[in-house]
Structure formats: structure tokens, C-alpha cells
Design goal:
This protein is mainly α. It contains 16 helices and two strands. It has a domain of about 230 residues. The structure holds zinc ion (ZN) (2 copies). It is a multi-pass membrane protein.
Length: about 350
């Protein structure tokens, strides 16, 4: 996060909130979302477009009333896999906002590798670059390029030299030294497809006598693209729509919709200001941040420790100085909207 134009490495474990102002790397060319600045990755384009066309067809035509169990199974797997992204890749590995004992790190890696996304190393590096150079030319999904670029377009073109160069300057020592990450990343090409597509199909078909065809449809053409879009929504919706309660000088926003669908990742203005806060949100809220509740449960079980949290005084001062004045209305919303605040 430091406002540092050098390529000096950032130690993510020592980030301070006064280091969060992103550096300014002015855009050389004002490009629109459909004007690729670098080489188009046609394999990615064809894969993503085909996946979404098939997915859209099944979301419309799926016989929802006949396969209720599969829908429940799809929701359960999406929730567990999503937890691997939010609590694992994001809050644990990318931001070190808490520490986790070995059994939980293994569980989180299993969940994350069930999403069919990236290796932990690549995911974390891209995310740290995003935080350090937010919405500049060095941000892989710079939201100045528009909604579609920040949502999915950035995956369809080669990364810009600026992004790659700055990525190489990110300190990834902690990730390289984590034996769980080492193991899972080393066998990424084997573990990833097995956990993402074979296991979630095999369990209901083999043990619960579910239809092979409809299980494949729900897992590969519904759950998988759904989770991809939810992940991408943080980079698009939560950088373009919402309030700036903690810092109005940056683009990340407080977005309730994203918070709901991601399990707590839409409090993105707060998160960019306090990236090391394990709750990624100031206020208590079950429906809009269940990930934090689970981390508290794991803390009670002794699997999670050294949870990092911004102090109310600190937050108050910063929000008063830099926020857009919507913090208190969000506090009221959090208290009213959720009966089961914890
Ligand atoms: Zn962001
Ligand atoms: Zn983050």
C-alpha cells in the first residue's frame, strides 16, 4: 500500500494505514474497455465466453423444481469454496490479517483449490499488486478502464509491462515459505481440477444417487461461473458503485450487494484503508460478513490467532478526516438490517 514509486518490496505483514494511499501512475493512453493495450489471450477469451454462454443457457433452462437437492449441494459447495477465497487466499495469505494453525491452513487450501481459480502464489501476488497500486496502470484490474475490464476483461489480455514489473517487486517471501502453499501450488495442475470438478460431482452421484448430467451442469456450469463472477464483482462493482465512508479520495467503495454475495468482501473502501483488519469491515453483521463470524469461531477453537483489528478511535479519526460522511448511516444499517448481529 505505500505511496512509493520505487519497486521496493512491501512486507504485507507490516502494512500501516498511513501507507495505503496508492501511488499515482498516470494513464498514458485513455483506452476504452474494448481497446486492448496488450495482446489478446484468445484461449482465455474463447474459454470464458463459451463457459458463460453455456452457463446462461443452464441458468435459464435448469429444472429447478426437480433437482432441489442438487441446488442445496451447489449452494453448500459454493459457500465452502468461496470461504477458501475470502478467509484463505484473501484475508490469510494475501493480507496476513490473522494467523492460522496448520490444520486450518490445509482446510483453507483445500477449499481454495476447489474454486478452479489460480494458484495461491499468483492470486496473492495479483492482489498485493492491486492494493499497492490501486486503480493505476500497475493495477491488474484498474477500474479506470471501466466495468467490464475490471470485472473480466483483464483476464482476456496479456498483463501490461507495468503490472508485471511491479508484481515482480512484491515481497512474496511469506508465501514461498508456507509449506501448505508450497505443496498445493506445486501440485496445482492435479489438485485443482480434481477438487474443483471431480470431487463435487462424484460425491452426490456416487453416494447420493443423483443424476450425473445434472450434477455436472450444477457444478461446472452453474457453481463454477457463479463463484468466478462473485470473485470478480469485488474488482468491478466494489470499485465503481457505493459509498466512500473511510476515504473519498480512492475508488474502492462500500457495496452492500457485494458484501452479501461474497460473505463480507464488499466493505471495500474500509478494506483498502485497513487491509490488515481480519473482519474487513468496521461493523458487526452476520448476513453481510459471515466470514468474520467463522473466523471468530475458529479463534475460539484455537485454530486462529493474532487477529488484527483497527481500533474504533483510529477508524473514527480517519473516517472524519477522509470519509464522505456516510459512515454513521452504514452503522445504522448494519444494526437494523441484521437481528443476529454477533
Ligand atoms: Zn480493491
Ligand atoms: Zn484485499
Amino acid at each position: 500500500m505505500p505511496p512509493n514509486s520505487s519497486s521496493a518490496a512491501v512486507n504485507a505483514t507490516n502494512l500501516k494505514d498511513n501507507e495505503i494511499t496508492p501511488i499515482e501512475i498516470p494513464s498514458k493512453n485513455k483506452l476504452r474497455w474494448y481497446e486492448p493495450e496488450t495482446k489478446i489471450l484468445w484461449v482465455n477469451v474463447i474459454f470464458i465466453v463459451t463457459l458463460h454462454v453455456i452457463s446462461l443457457y443452464y441458468f435459464i433452462t435448469f429444472p429447478y423444481t426437480e433437482h432441489k437437492f442438487l441446488l442445496v449441494w451447489t449452494w453448500i459447495t459454493a459457500y465452502i469454496h468461496g470461504f477458501g477465497i475470502v478467509a484463505g487466499a484473501h484475508r490469510l495469505w494475501a493480507h496476513r490479517s490473522y494467523k492460522a494453525k496448520l490444520p486450518l491452513r490445509i482446510i483453507l487450501a483445500l477449499c481454495f483449490f476447489s474454486t478452479g481459480q489460480n494458484s495461491i502464489f499468483n492470486w496473492v501476488r495479483d492482489h498485493r499488486v492491486h492494493h499497492k497500486y490501486t486503480d493505476t496502470e500497475a493495477d491488474p484490474h484498474n477500474s479506470h478502464r471501466g466495468f467490464w475490464f475490471s470485472h473480466v476483461g483483464w483476464l482476456m489480455i496479456k498483463k501490461k509491462d507495468e503490472v508485471r514489473q511491479r508484481g515482480r517487486g512484491i515481497d512474496m517471501t511469506d508465501i514461498l515459505e508456507d509449506p501448505v502453499v508450497q505443496f498445493f501450488d506445486r501440485y496445482f495442475s492435479i489438485i485443482n481440477p480434481i477438487l474443483s470438478f471431480v470431487v463435487p460431482v462424484f460425491i452426490p452421484v456416487y453416494f447420493l444417487n443423483q443424476s450425473l448430467k445434472w450434477t455436472i451442469v450444477t457444478q461446472i456450469f452453474m457453481r463454477y461461473p457463479w463463484l468466478l463472477n462473485i470473485t470478480w464483482s469485488v474488482n468491478s462493482f466494489a470499485h465503481l458503485f457505493g459509498y466512500h465512508a473511510y476515504d473519498k479520495s480512492i475508488r474502492p467503495t462500500q457495496n452492500i450487494f457485494v458484501s452479501f454475495v461474497t460473505g463480507g468482501e464488499g466493505w471495500h473502501n474500509y478494506h483498502h484503508v485497513f487491509p490488515w483488519d481480519y473482519k474487513a469491515n468496521e461493523f458487526k453483521s452476520f448476513w453481510f460478513n459471515p466470514t468474520s463470524l467463522w473466523l471468530d469461531v475458529f479463534h475460539k477453537l484455537g485454530l486462529v490467532y493474532d487477529l488484527r483489528r483497527a481500533t474504533p478511535d483510529h477508524i473514527e479519526k480517519l473516517a472524519k478526516r477522509k470519509g464522505d460522511g456516510t459512515r454513521h448511516s452504514q452503522q445504522e444499517f448494519s444494526q437494523k438490517a441484521v437481528d443476529c448481529s454477533y
